[in-house]
């Protein structure tokens, strides 16, 4: 499985560049507005992906399941720097416990971001300390769960007069949907390619 994961990634020496793989669909929904750069960390620890539940009082995406990550700062050198910094701020993940493996394709969101997903190995001994202002919970889901077709749910949603095909996963009471589910689907599809 780790070999399949590594093969599915863009190498660290070749990070993806915008636009996202879903650019046409997002342009139809939100127009040609400039997408703000962001990055998330898809961290794999002992065969499980690390996810967060955002606190209920946040102004955007409150209560949603997400990967650690966020907007790029002007001082961030690249998407990898953004993903590591945000993971440290949100869940207290020490950079020394993270080994970057590669990238997935960029993904654009309805809120106007272009996210670069950074895939990394997290050391078994890493400890998470969620920042209470941002993260209500950190939990882990076996990567194998996302690779089982029966666990992927598809549905259609109306947004500003447009019908959108959506995906989601349900794991032990957590609904994983939106950008997080779409990025996971991209990972699964890339891993399934010969």
Automatic annotation (TrEMBL):
Gene3D superfamilies: Nucleoside Triphosphate Pyrophosphohydrolase (3.90.79.10). Residues 1-20 are annotated as: Disordered. Its cofactor is Mg(2+); Mn(2+). It comes from Dyella choica. The keyword Manganese applies. GO terms for molecular function: coenzyme A diphosphatase activity; metal ion binding. Residues 34-165 form the Nudix hydrolase domain. Keywords: Hydrolase, Magnesium, Manganese, Metal-binding. Pfam families: NUDIX (PF00293). This is CoA pyrophosphatase.
